[in-house]
Amino acid sequence: MKFLIILLSLNAFSFEQYLPPSLKINNKKLVFIDAETSDYKITFDLKTKTSKVETIIKFRVKETGYPVLDFVNDALKIEINGEKARGPEIEIPDTTVRYITKKVSRNDLHTLKITSELDEPNFFEDMNAVAEYFNFTDLKFRYFLERYVPASFEYDQVKMTFEVKFLNTDIEHAVMTNGEIKELSFNHYKIDYPDYYNSSSILFHVRPLETLTIVKTNYKSIDNRLIPITCYNRGSIKYCTDSYIEKVKGFLKTLENDFGPYPHQSLLIYELQTNSAMEHAGAVKTGMWAMRHELDHQWFARGIMPNNGNSGWLDEAIASWGDDDYNKSSNDNFDFNIGTSYSSVYKRITYGNAYSGGQRFLTKLDYKFKNLGGLKPLLRRYFEEFQLQVVSTKDFINLMNSFFDTDVEDIFKKVTGRDNYVEVYSFDQNNEFSYNSVLRKSKSSSCKFHKLQSKEEIFSEK
Ligand SMILES: [Zn+2]
């Protein structure tokens, strides 16, 4: 019986390999959560020009301790299993997180309720309406779902719902998002997101309906599914034209031929004529200049999802290589270091060097295995094997080793710096995590993709 219980409890953590190790800081064991469901009620009150977010997260932990998750804005109220608690910020290697000040037991299902506000929602001055956009990027700290609402981390696939309400306004608001939307009543929506989503998956954008141009069409995928495409933009300029959408379909066709069927249920395109671009799951925010890149991420980054900031480099490398039409190297000299996996397992952003440095690394690997067909068949297999799952660089290395019957572990260590965190971050003899001496803040990265929109851009009609 005991054996059975152990087996059952192990099963509860199917992604255990990706759960960051617990930390002992100030005599507290901080344990990363495995959220099962996260339900958010987001209310905009146009009379008081305020927002309110009520979050309920049901989660388990693998070890008894203080649960770790993140939210950037301070909470107004926190309750865990019916008891009041606080959620202070704490610095850990490579990032800042929050922990809940009540210890919870391993394996049990816990209920966390948090009341908070959105960070400065954009209320129009000349209209009784709001423009709110969840501006995500993997190149800055704490810029996924946690920027807006309490959330788990990228390693954690969570069944999420949003309930969105606009109070005290006659102006109809639209919710543009990559989930299944139901209109419950006027200005009141419920959204169900697929259960493979994580903290980087959601595109969430609300605006007065009359300020949007929305075009709907379908794409017939390689496996004969009819994929609904919604293309939208702000204002009266009609960018989502037939020829624009034909180009999108062309990219989809090429990517499907290369890597297999489009993995999501639908495609939402937030068309933006600025230099801001970002990928979500079954959704992109971009202009045509980065369309191929962000659609590539529908397979690599949001079709299979990196477990942390040390693994995201590969998706940028793949997308950048594709942007350059899978250019060739003339040698397989690996005498360089791009340092994209050099940090601790707690790291949450992608190094800017992932793009050109990562692409360079892929071209060398492609050359090395050119007699076995090069790297593209491996990428196709990688997608087949891991789609809609969380992955780490280690999964890619293991697959490459078996696919080419080789051992590339040392090459990856040398070029990406993988696993160095083991030497840098450790517990001291008292089992205290000695983070003060080793704390190293990674710098934010920058690149031409994944730029955030400015506050003005989100708000303005242009
Ligand atoms: Zn990218």
Key descriptive features of the protein:
462 residues; Immunoglobulin-like; 12-stranded mixed beta sheet; 5-stranded mixed beta sheet; 11 helices; 23 strands; 22% helix; globular; binds zinc ion
Q: Could you describe the 3D structure shown?
A:
The chain has 462 residues and is α+β, with helices and mostly antiparallel strands. The chain has 2 domains: 22-212, tricorn interacting facor f3 domain (Immunoglobulin-like), CATH 2.60.40.1730; 215-459, Neutral Protease Domain 2 (Neutral Protease, domain 2, Orthogonal Bundle), CATH 1.10.390.10. The chain has helices at 2-11, 242-259, 291-296, 313-323, 356-368, 376-386, 393-404, 409-416, 421-424, 435-438, 455-459; strands at residues 23-25, 28-45, 50-61, 66-69, 77-80, 83-84, 89-92, 95-99, 110-116, 122-123, 130-133, 159-167, 173-177, 180-185, 188-192, 204-208, 212-220, 226-234, 267-271, 278-280, 283-286, 305-306, 390-391. Strands 1, 2, 3, 4, 5, 6, 7, 8, 9, 12, 14 and 15 form a 12-stranded mixed beta sheet that branches. Strands 17-18-19-21-20 form a 5-stranded mixed beta sheet. A 4-stranded antiparallel beta sheet has the order 10-11-16-13. Strand 10 (122-123) and strand 11 form a beta hairpin. Helix 4 crosses helix 5. It is globular. The termini are far apart. The site of zinc ion has 6 residues, from helix 4.
